[in-house]
Structure formats: structure tokens, C-alpha cells
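task queued by scheduler; priority normal; single chain, no ligands, no partner chains; default sampling; output format set to C-alpha cells
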Amino acid sequence: MSRPHTFTAAVHQEEDWYVAQCLEVDVASQGQTIDEALGNLAEAVELYLEHVPTPTITPAPLVTHFHLPGSAA
């Protein structure tokens, strides 16, 4: 990759691991901390982009929050 690029990651916890997924390319990684998972993801995305001749990079989706009113149970 010739110039810096900012990617978007979604991170969730699975038991003792954090799983980080890049939203622009189909690459994921994991780590025991969020920082480790993101660092591993950055390395994995860099390797992916170096080895795939024409990588598909799609724009990240809009990620936001919404609220549901409490249920009347």
C-alpha cells in the first residue's frame, strides 16, 4: 500500500478474545485485548492488500445507534 489509508473496524468479544473485523475488506483478526486485536487486524489487512492483485475495498457502512422503547411485559 503506497499511501496511508484509514479503515473501519468492528470489535466484539468472544469469551476471552476480542475479534476485530475490517468493514472495508473481508479480513478479521483477534487478540486478548482490544488494542492487540486492532494491531493484529492492521497487520492482516496490510498483508492482504500486499498479496491480493486487485483488492476489493468497499466503503464502510454507516454505523449508528437507535433506541427501542421498553417493552410492556
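post-processing summary
- DSSP finds one helix and three strands in the chain.
- The chain has a mean pLDDT of 92.
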